[in-house]
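Blinded run. Sample ID left blank on purpose so nobody reads anything into the name before looking at the predicted structure. Input follows.
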Amino acid sequence: MTTSTCDSEGRLKLYSALQMMQDCSEMWIDSEPGVKDCFARQNMAQLLASRQVEVIRVPSYQETLTVTTSVYGMKPMFGFRNTFIYDAEGNPCYKTWSMGAFVDKATGKLKRVDDETIASMTLETQLEMDYKDRRIILPKEGGVAGAPIPVMRADIDYNKHVNNANYIRMAMELLPVDFEVRGLRVEYRVAAKLGDVLTPVVYTDGNQVLVALSIGHEVSAIIDFYR
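Blinded prediction complete.
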């Protein structure tokens, strides 16, 4: 861990932990030549559809961390993986599972991975954690609207839309200052792009805060924080 990944108290920022996880997941493709070749031939990409994070312990400045990722399930249009962050003693600090969607880069629509590619993949054992539903249901009332959030150039990644970790960074700014995140779920629905304006609505219920980020009348992402 370096200074750029730490908060004002010298602890790993959740945003930084998520960046580590997504970088590790992207590098996984290089370890699966069949998948890499399929994506290149068919102009495909893997986009995150949902993620759940369990925060076991927040590491501190200069700790040595190891990030691992493994795919435990594969369907023609979706993949399922665990990504964990461990400390120097091999104890988990963050446990996550996520679902990725396979899409056509040109159209942005779901696209099937062929059976041969799926058969070539290395599937590993699903790791132990408290698995929750990936779908997040918003309350019908009780939300408080926040100030609009314009999408800036720094929010965009190479897929030409808001990077998945940046949604969570935006949403965390709306949490109470003393809210210690012990876990979260996020569901990505409509990709926000440069020039869009996200309208946040916050729902608070005891130890849970839901943040919905919308583009006009369409929900772009929902983040469920709990402590």
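Unblinding after everyone has recorded impressions. The first strand starts at residue 44 and ends at 55.
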